[in-house]
Amino acid sequence: MGLDDRVAHVAVLLQTAVLAVLELFFLPLRLDGALLPAAGGWPFPISVVVAAVSMPLLVIAASSCSRKMSVAASPLLVWLGVLLVLGVFGPGGDVVLANDWRTLALFGAGALPGAVALGAIMGRPA
Q1: What pTM value is reported for the model?
Q2: Cα-based distances in Å from 66 to 9, 38, 74, 82, 124
Q3: How sure is the predictor about 79, in pLDDT bands with cuts at 50, 70 and 90?
Q4: Helices (H), strands (E): how many in the chain?
Q5: What span, in angstroms and rounded, lies between the C-alpha atoms of 80 and 27?
Q6: pLDDT tens digit string along 84-103?
Q7: Which of 75, 74, 73, 84 has the alpha carbon at shortest distance from 107?
Q8: What domain range is 22 assigned to?
Q9: What is the spatial distance between Cα 62 and Cα 98, in angstroms, rounded to a whole number?
Q10: Where, by residue number, does the polypeptide cross the bilayer (predicted)?
Q11: Once rounded to an integer, what is the mean pLDDT over residues 30-54?
């Protein structure tokens, strides 16, 4: 892995960490009229969709840097680590992860497509 590949891999990992933070902090959005239009206070977990779309792309981008599976899996591990650490030990000791379906949806929508992309990379011929 050359210098360009290492820089690209670090950039992918930084993007992964930033996306994980944004997905976590925008998870409790509601259509309550404060930030989004008022529509009965329904939950609007757009970060679940962002996680489902971005995680496979980040895993594929990391796999283009090296043929090692640890490099390809690193965005998925960074994403899970950032969500767990910030979700449980949030800023100022706050618990950011809500105890409802949106947390499970975020973890499932991010980890499952990322793991499927990693499996597809593992199944490629050498």
Answers
A1: 0.89
A2: 9, 47, 11, 23, 13
A3: very high
A4: 4, 2
A5: 15
A6: 999 888 777 777 787 889 99
A7: 84
A8: 3-122
A9: 30
A10: 7-29, 41-62, 69-89, 101-121
A11: 86
